[in-house]
Design brief:
Elements (H helix, E strand, L loop, with lengths): L12 H15 L7 H14 L8 H8 L1
């Protein structure tokens, strides 16, 4: 059995402005939507929480196949 906890990310406008430079450097390519920032914040929360391994829905689907 896997133990898990739910977390929420709700960035403030000031956090977006603070994060933009790091987000641009992390992405290393242009992007056209805000979902990239959402994923960036989720991964940042995971890193700050000490989580070493993350499995996305797509990765999980490939693992089950």
């Amino acid at each position: 059995m896997v133990s898990s906890a739910s977390h929420a990310v709700t960035p403030e406008p000031s956090e977006l402005m603070r994060d933009l430079e790091d987000l641009f450097m992390t992405q290393e390519e242009p992007f056209s939507g805000t979902s990239v920032y959402g994923q960036y914040r989720v991964m940042k929360l995971a890193q700050d929480s000490g989580i070493k391994v993350r499995v996305s829905d797509r990765t999980w689907s490939r693992c089950k196949a």
